[in-house]
Amino acid sequence: xxxxxxxxxxxxxxxxxxxxxxxxxxxxxxxxxxxxxxxxxxxxxxxxxxxxxxxxxxxxxxxxxxxxxxxxxxxxxxxxxxxxxxxxxxxxxxxxxxxxxxxxxxxxxxxxxxxxxxxxxxxxxxxxxxxxxxxxxxxxxxxxxxxxxxxxxxxxxxxxxxxxxxxxxxxxxxxxxxxxxxxxxxxxxxxxxxxxxxxxxxxxxxxxxxxxxxxxxxxxxxxxxxxxxxxxxxxxxxxxxxxxxxxxxxxxxxxxxxxxxxxxxxxxxxxxxxxxxxxxxxxxxxxxxxxxxxxxxxxxxxxxxxxxxxxxxxxxxxxx
Length: 320
Known about the structure:
Radius of gyration: 20 Å
Strand order of the largest sheet: 3-2-1-4-5-6-9
Mean pLDDT: 92
Shape: globular
Distance between the termini: 28 Å
CATH class of the domain at 6-172 and 205-230 and 283-298: Alpha Beta
């Protein structure tokens, strides 16, 4: 089914997966997609069903030398699971462990695992590094950390080379969630009480993330290493609003409000987590991936926001 150089991309029809497959195709790299169910847009993809402890990856792994694992249970806005943490563990930990064990048995050389900065924590006074003690605060971050530990055990048992990437918020064409919501507010000219916020947050454009993934697939020195990855241009929330407004061709509508008042109002309305992400700082250091892999983000923050805005305005496709 594949060659000795084939890359398997799990979750290939997702936000990051589509961008990664586009880059692999443009570089004439042999790759294979997995999806949950047959999809008309991906006629050659291998459907593996629900990801969990019983998923059979063997057909997808035939002839593969590297797996990029993107499938995960992320933040669920309307939680329906009776035991959310157990459901996160079923997919993010047990599903990842099953894939790694079958990959090791199939002779796969390397697995690149896209984790999350949430393994490190939710807020910084100084930028996170890979040497900081993990302090995940929610089920998503906790299970990403548990998955990283499970992969380290499989690597020790089988010789499978594991590379872990921890991105912060990923944006770009096709983005969803809070970033899309903020962009829509800015595009509609909604006044935002964020002018007084003085924070710094690291982001990563999807084009930069998939470039880092592509580097991690082949770099010999990446084996067994963990890397934080970002655009390398940290931005304040009001700075991001202004940059988005410029990219969308509208005027930024910001007005001052003490952050303490925002946090108090958020506590009363059950929106503390959302306000924390808007007012707090979360920065990462990319020194390790720069020094060890020679990686530099190929796209600037301005380029990434411009491409995202063009997609939002219907002027670009969903590829980075």
